[in-house]
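User: Predict the full complex structure for these chains.
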Amino acid sequence: MSATDRREFLSRTGKYLLLTGTAAAALEHVLAGRAEAAPGYAEAAHWWGMAIDVEKCIGCGNCVRACKEENDVPREPYYFRTWVERYHVEDGELAHPQVDSPNGGYDGFPERYSAVAATGKTFFVPKLCNHCVDSPCEQVCPVGATFRSPDGVVMVDRKYCLGCRYCVQACPYGCRFIDPRTHVADKCDLCYHRITKGLTTACAEACPTGARQLVDLKDPKDPVHEFLRTRTIQVLKPQMATGPKVFYAGLDGSVR
Amino acid sequence: MAGTPTGGPSSTSRTSFRDVEHLARVAALFLAAVVVFLTAQRLLVPKGFGTLGHYRPGALADNAGRPSAFAGRAACEQCHTDVADTKKKGKHAGVGCEACHGALAAHASDPAAAKPVRPDARTLCVRCHASLVGRPAAFPQIKPAEHVPEGASCLDCHVAHDPGMGGPK
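Assistant: Here is the predicted structure of the two-chain assembly.
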């Protein structure tokens, strides 16, 4: 090792040692044990997911706006916990759909396809985290900051996340982003702060047509069971074997 | 002259003694490292980590403890029973209050402090009801330029909470 290298090494080590003070302060509140969960909420009694009726989606963007407001998602057009895609498929061209999602559907959809010279078909597909049972994002997280809760919600421990972005790359559905303000990962947590209090998610609350419904698969009275029994159900990218829990009815084969 | 000694009992024992000293040093260093590691692990790993899975269980309560912006329609209907009754009969029965009125948890927790703004019908209604290719054919859609006379409001003819053609009430 040359003298320069050693000096560099020492100065870098010194900086790291100085930084540990800050890191220690940040860690202090992380180290506190388990805070009190929502009173009266039994995690073991629930298994959350979402049911989406594609044929009911009108592309109004209410869910996207509600989600951003409820969850303080950055308003810039690159950050979404949920968004809506518009698919246009020419007859038989299932492998080559035209997909657009201007600002994730936040401002609604401008008219793009002519109703007069209509060829093919056009429809809207709401997307969000699939809360996979075997989620790739959870598996790649090096520190355990992404995890699946006992009630089936994949969520981020924002105090513990390093912001390494592995999970952003790992998610096959593109459901994650790095919050530009905190530099840690963020994603849909099915409005965990709402569902643990008996409310539905903000997107489902704001959806005017009931195209999206929060479902509890462990609740035998949940209408999802009839939905799953009586409708033709698809999940996104089943070939990835991620075990998605967002169930789509009426989903076209062209949807990725 | 003889060369440097290459063997002999005294030289062998000295070498082996030296080796033991080396081993002891390495062992001491190793032990020290283990102690440092265990101490650091104890200090740095959050309490309860691993009890529910490879994560910090406190994160559940952290995420569950965030504030809400949307109150939920049950909260609205506790006070606005008249509107709830009107809506129940109409085509907007399934539409949540905050789908049109926006997030109003602040109003629900203190009605006097946070007054909701009445939405502007001409911008609000067309979000859903302007005709758009891709909207389900059965969903009621209008062409605003043809359907709504200049300067008129949707509410001149429709009741927002019961939008059938009952006229304004």
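The two ends of chain B are 127 Å apart (CA to CA).
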